[in-house]
Amino acid sequence: MKNSIIIVLILHSLILFGIPSGHGFGVMILLDILCVPMIFQNDLEEFFIVAGIISLTGKLLLIISFFVKDLNTKNSIVVIGLIALLISFLLIVIENRNDTMLTLLPLIFGVPFLLYLGRVLYLMNKKLV
Question: Which of 17, 53, 87, 123 has its CA 20 to 30 A from that of 94?
């Protein structure tokens, strides 16, 4: 399951999203890095910064789950982390819904992420049964 979580982290980081204000395209990992200084400056007005904070939180939770020994706690942390990654993905897609190309690009690059997210949930369910 650890390998699948690592792949989910990588695939989520590689989702392309378009910034509708004309700044171009970005990769989700850049958004995670750029949102950290914005937290300390209280500059949370930009929608993509909020999505970046949620994404960063989900990724940190998934990384923390590698070091937790208790299976129930680990599974809870993984589920919360996956939900955070899914919410950030959906926020990016919803924000770009007015432009066909900007909506299509994150969806296309998000399909592998969504498939591996389902795989992690399947593996977690398989371990619990």
Answer: 123
Instruction: Identify the DSSP state of 66.
Output: T
* pTM of this structure: 0.84
- The two tokens of residue 48 are 């993509």
Q: Please give the Cα distance from 94 to 99 (Å, whole number).
A: 10
Position 55: which residue type? Answer: S
User: Distance between CA atoms of 69 and 53, rounded to whole angstroms?
Assistant: 26
Whole-angstrom Cα distance, residue 74 to residue 49?
A: 27
The tokens describing 22, both together, are: 């004309």
- For 49, residues 6+ apart whose C-beta sits below 8 A from its C-beta are 31, 34, 35, 38, 43
- With contact defined as beta carbons under 8 Å apart, do 62 and 82 qualify? yes
Q: Which residues of 1-10 are buried (b: 16+ CB within 10 A; e: fewer)?
A: beebbebbbe
Pairwise CA distance, residues 124 & 129, whole Å: 9
